[in-house]
Amino acid sequence: MQNRMFVSLGLPLIAAVAAIAQPPAAAPFMVHQLKPNIYWVEGGGGNSGVIVGDKGVIIVDAKTTPAGGKELLDNVAKITPKPVTTVILTHSDGDHVNGLASFPAGITIIAHENNKKEQETALAAGGRGAPPADHLPTQVIAKNKTSLKIDGVKIELYHWAPAHTSGDLVVYLPSEKIVFTGDIVAAQLPDPLIHLEKHGSSEGWITTAKGVVGLNADQYVPGHGNVQTKTDVQTRLTNAEAKRAKIKDLVAQGKSLEEIRTAVGDAPPAAGRGGRGPGFPTFTEVVYRELTNKSA
Ligand SMILES: [Zn+2]
Question: Ligand 1 centre and the CA of 253: distance in Å?
């Protein structure tokens, strides 16, 4: 998920100024311990993971802004004096990546190859949502499963299919039975969040969620919101599969997007959208677009 302020940059100046003048209240940083050497940090954008290895620290996702990245590092320094050596990125959205600007030079940055491509595209486009040019991924992942041992910690990286974006990576710690899902799970949203503009896919999301549920884990740190159980993720998967199947039926019957929204019980789209841009398409809209190739 990206900061909606970025979305408003395409709007008339007055709306953009209004959005910048009233940024969403930044959530305070909070550090939560999961195991003696494993933490997650909320606030300042997407959730981050902190894994303390033998000699250094591995971070999962880096917050939204340089200030957020620095605040994350300040929190890590309260946990351990060991240096941050490695960052693993779950996907390319700015609220998980752009805080890297405050990270030390020369660290290892691991990401899926499509994540790196998406960051390069965003960098070429420029603007305030662009990732830091001097902290692009240094190690790209192309396989569906990659087993690593970093600083004494066993880590498995999974990419089953394009889901939230084309470059998602799920981070699994088999010894600790912990998964960092990235925005495959955004716990505050009832439905999956798919970025079609980054070639995400609702079908790929279902494949990915099945993979995530299949891991031998009992704590799932989502990209946003609180830690989930396997049952929570399974419920999310079951609901999304049922909703997608229903939308598919309704599309086959020739129903319009509005009729489908009503039939599946979605809230009507917000009327006054204000200066913060239209937000993200809903799951219903994404599935409708995928099945019809229509934009609305
Ligand atoms: Zn995201």
Answer: 32
